[in-house]
Structure formats: C-alpha cells, structure tokens
Amino acid sequence: MSRYGFHPLTLGVRFMLELAALVCFGLWASGTAPASLRYVFIVAVPLVVAVLWGVFATPGDASRSGGTVIATPGLLRLLLELAVFFGSAAALYAAGSRILAVTLAGVLVVYHFLSWDRVLWLLRH
C-alpha cells in the first residue's frame, strides 16, 4: 500500500495548503466585513477555522500527532478538510482572485488524488 498521503513531503505540502487556506479566509473576511469590524474579522475568521481544524480529528491519524481533543469519525474529518480546503478556494474566488482560486482548487484536487491512501484511511476510521 502506498504511504504517499503520510509522506513527510506530502504533509509539508498539506501544511502549506492549510496556511494558504487561512490566508484565503482572511482575505475574504477583509472584503466582506463592515469597515468598523474589518480587523476583527480578518483575525477572527481564520482563527475559528484553525480552531475547528485542530480540535476535530480522527484518533490515530498518522498525518497528525495521532491525538485529538474531540474524537471525530474519519468521514466527518474528511468532510471538514474538504470544506476548509475547497471553502478557502471559494472564499478566494469571492474575494475577487478568480484565477488564483481556480489554481488553488486544481492544486487541491491533485493533492487529494495523490493522497488517496490517507483519504481511504479516513473513510475506514
């Protein structure tokens, strides 16, 4: 069985995609927030996404520490990941960066295709 989805290089790419997702949500928040709350939203929206990302995890996931705050079934975790990753591309698109958003979505499709073994692991746990 391939372990590409758990390979350190792939996990490094995933980490970069996670950071990019937070930036995308911040960009979206900066354009949609009322002027008086803009800076609050720029910090709060990515922070909420990061907390949800970190709190809900599948126990034993080798792509993370294996630990979790709230044990989450693999399918639910996969749906959360897809929502965050592809939601960030949608947020970038809504913020007006359409070419970057489509490029990000393409990179995400390739990443998940190459990480098929991790996707299958999540579906089984």
Give the termini separation: 17 Å
In total, the number of domains comes to 1
User: Any idea what the radius of gyration is?
Assistant: 15 Å
The geometry reads as globular
Strand order of the largest sheet: 1-2
Describe this entry's structure for a reader.
- By secondary structure, the protein is mainly alpha-helical.
- The chain has one domain (4-124).
- It is built from five helices and two strands.
- Strands 1-2 form a two-stranded parallel ribbon.
- α1 (8-32) runs antiparallel to α2, α3 runs antiparallel to α4 (98-114) and α3 (74-94) packs across α5.
- It is globular and about 45 Å long.
- The model has no long low-confidence stretch (mean pLDDT 92).
- Keywords: Membrane, Transmembrane, Transmembrane helix.
- The chain crosses the membrane at residues 12-31, 37-57, 69-93, 99-116.
Structure, briefly:
This is DUF2568 domain-containing protein. It contains 5 helices and 2 strands, in the order ααββααα. With 125 residues, it is mostly helical.
Jot down its keywords.
membrane; 5 helices; 125 residues; DUF2568; two-stranded parallel sheet; single chain; mainly alpha
